[in-house]
Amino acid sequence: MAHKVIRTRADLAINGAAPAFSEPLHVGRPNVGSREDFMRRAGSMFDSGWLTNNGPLVQQFEQRLADYLGVKHCVAMCNGTIALEIAIRALGMEGEVIVPSWTFIATAHALFWQGITPVFADIDPATHNLDPDAVRRMITPRTTGIIGVHLWGRAAPVDELQSIADEHGLQLLFDAAHAFGCSYKGQTIGRFGRAEVLSFHATKAFNTFEGGAVVTEDDELAEAMRLMRNFGFAGYDNVIHPGTNGKMIEICAAMGLTNLDAFDSIVETNIRNYRAYREVLSGIAGISLLNYATTERNSHHYVVIEVAEQCAVSRDEIITALHAENILARRYFWPGCHKMKPYRDLYPHAGLMLPNSERVGKSVVVLPGGATTDAAAIDVIGKIISTLVGT
Ligand code: T4K
């Protein structure tokens, strides 16, 4: 892709110049492994005549994933949201459950959809993850659980949340939708809390088109979730549990097996991109790239910058300027769940308890990453931002 040269503000598309990219540069462009391997697996699916309902590819996928993550059970599902709903139900959560507001809306909706009240707790602005003290403040006699989110692939404060859960007799579940292949204290994410929920949506570092899974060390929980995802069937004509249809289909497992082979190289690309972004963005006043501990594994799938209040241009001006250049940066997860329906009507004053979530929500920009982004594109993105900010 040809990129333009940017020397002054007149070279920016918001000032009438041609866009830097002729085609849109997306956040969340799917990473796809070997097409030949995928087609071979798709062929085996047609040969077997088994398209869904716990077929051979799904079984193989679950085993490989459990091995990869070092966890006892992997229960594959049709998407991350249904996986969350099933895990929440299998854990017997009810009443109120504490969640961050600074997350994708599915974390809150998975509760609300089942008649459970999501109670939003504030985040630590340095990590964007739940602040354990804020969680303590939101506990009431109706609280039955906590859902920690490993946002941007950085682990939530697992030990602190586990202590709170133990002290108050609460269920602890993790939304690990962003954290496939990431670590906490050197251990691969997947075995924390009672269970962890993964998303394999097309826009994730590791995808199965659509898909998700609940991973757990707990035999009984895994068994219950296997029943729940298949209407509660235990063999022909024998329903022994309430359930829904949460099954992963064979073609998705074929994609997952293929992309698992490519995952390490995807992460290498992401790390290369992250370092290139660090280089081009360093020294721009008021712009900071989110930092992660080098002692932990992070897939670096999300390239997140924060625009300080004192920056010469606002976050939204940066978004407008980037979109004009065909760089479709995102404001994930602005404005925060508590400001979206139905929660903003249910708790109009929730923001008073969520000052950090509100501040972070106004500052974040997620930049394009993954295999479709390269050093040359990142260089141009850096120049656009520095020209705009004026440093
Ligand atoms: N918990 C958390 C913390 C999550 O982040 C998510 C999902 C979930 C739970 C629920 O898991 P799932 O039920 O989705 O498995 C996208 C994804 O749809 C969503 O999966 C993801 N989080 C969220 C962070 O991002 P949108 O509404 O931003 O999607 P959309 O259509 O705007 O696409 C994003 C960008 O990706 C666009 O710029 C276009 C590009 N794209 C997208 C698709 C689907 C492509 O280039 N190709 C594609 O095939 O939610």
Description:
The chain is an alpha/beta fold and 391 residues long. 36% of the residues lie in helices and 15% in strands. The chain has helices spanning 35-48, 56-69, 80-90, 106-112, 132-137, 158-168, 219-228, 250-281, 315-324, 343-346, 355-361, 375-389, and strands spanning 25-26, 73-77, 96-100, 117-121, 143-149, 171-175, 183-184, 187-188, 195-199, 212-216, 287-289, 303-307, 327-328, 364-367. Helix 2 packs parallel to helix 8 (250-281) and helix 3 (80-90) packs across helix 4 (106-112). The two termini are 26 Å apart. The structure holds ligand T4K. Ligand T4K is lined by residues 26-30, 79-81, 103-104, 106-107, 149, 175, 177-178, 199, 201-203, 212, 328, 332.
- In percent, how helical is the residue content? 25-40%
| Strands, total number | 14
Radius of gyration: 22 Å
Mean of pLDDT: 97
Order of helices and strands: EHHEHEHEHEHEEEEEHHEEHEHHEH
- Derived from helix and strand composition plus strand pairing, the structural class reads alpha/beta
Portion of residues in beta strands equals: 5-15%
Total helical elements: 12
Bound molecules: ligand T4K
What would a concise description of this structure say?
By secondary structure, the protein is α/β, with parallel strands linked by helices.
Structural descriptors:
391 residues; alpha/beta; 7-stranded mixed beta sheet; 3-stranded antiparallel beta sheet; 12 helices; 36% helix; binds ligand T4K
